[in-house]
Amino acid sequence: MTAAPLAQQDAVPARRDWRDTLRDATDLALLGFAVTLAALPVLTLAPALATASAAVHDRLTLGGWPDLRTTLSRFGRALPAGLAASAAGLAVAAALGVDLVALATGRVPGGGVALAGTAVVTAALAGYAGLTVVAVGRTGGRGWRVAARVAARTGLARPGTWAAAGGVCAVAALLGILVTPVAVPILAGYALAALHAVAARRPTARMEAP
Predict the structure, then answer these.
(1) Which of 3, 73, 93, 154 would staple 204 via disulfide (CB 3.0–4.6 Å)?
(2) How many angstroms separate the CA atoms of 115 and 110, rounded?
């Protein structure tokens, strides 16, 4: 008669306490520094983000971080396609940054309306990029083209998820401006975790085989 209640008690997962939260926060901070170091050559930004996204996905789905060998292997496999993705993403970011600065300083006519419109477009593209990073992380850091298509379908089917991802990127960018430079890398790990959390609330479309 007591077997069932005991089995039910054994099935209850252990409650998390402040030490678990602190451990996760520390792990994400270290992940942010790792992404920053891996992205120092600039064109390795996309492979670094893909590898880190895959690590966050493992942590959320498997309950643990991948080992160093797995992480390095993923980074190596992500390099060929990731270099092109980095170049494309940085080119778009640079163009939008120049537009925003020109509008904000009055060098280009348009005023507040044009500035607000450009800011909205920038946030939307950032949200799309964030969903793409989440999608590529779900396949071990590979398949940028497929991930981009999945992110596009997700954005069109679930505008709220797209907007939330854009909001995460916007908040991370704002905090990056406000905090001291040494703390900026920490934001990368937290932003990745937030993007995965946003996508998990409304799961993205199924990832096709690369």
Answers:
(1) 154
(2) 7
The DSSP secondary structure of 25-42, one letter per residue, reads HHHHHHHHHHHHHHTTTS
Residues 6 or more apart whose CB falls under 8 angstroms from that of 44 comprise: 38, 79, 82, 83, 86
CA dihedral for 15, 17, 19, 22, sign (positive or negative): positive
Assigned token pair, 24: 């996760």
pLDDT in tens, 48-92: 999 999 999 999 999 899 999 999 999 999 999 899 999 999 999
* Tokens 């993923």 -> residue: 74
Q: What is the pLDDT of residues 32-48, one digit of tens each?
A: 999 999 999 999 999 99
pLDDT per residue over 156-209, tens digit each? Answer: 999 999 999 999 999 998 898 888 888 888 899 999 999 999 998 755 444 444
Alpha helices of the chain — where are they, by DSSP H?
Answer: 3-11, 18-38, 45-62, 68-104, 111-137, 144-157, 159-178, 184-201
| In contact, 136 and 143? CB cutoff 8 Å | yes
pTM of the predicted model over 0.70 = yes
- Residues sharing a CB contact under 8 Å with residue 78, sequence separation 6 or more, in sequence order: 46, 47, 50, 51, 141, 142
Cβ contact 124:162 at 8 Å: yes
Question: DSSP secondary-structure letter at 142?
Answer: -
Size of the chain, expressed as the number of residues it contains:
210
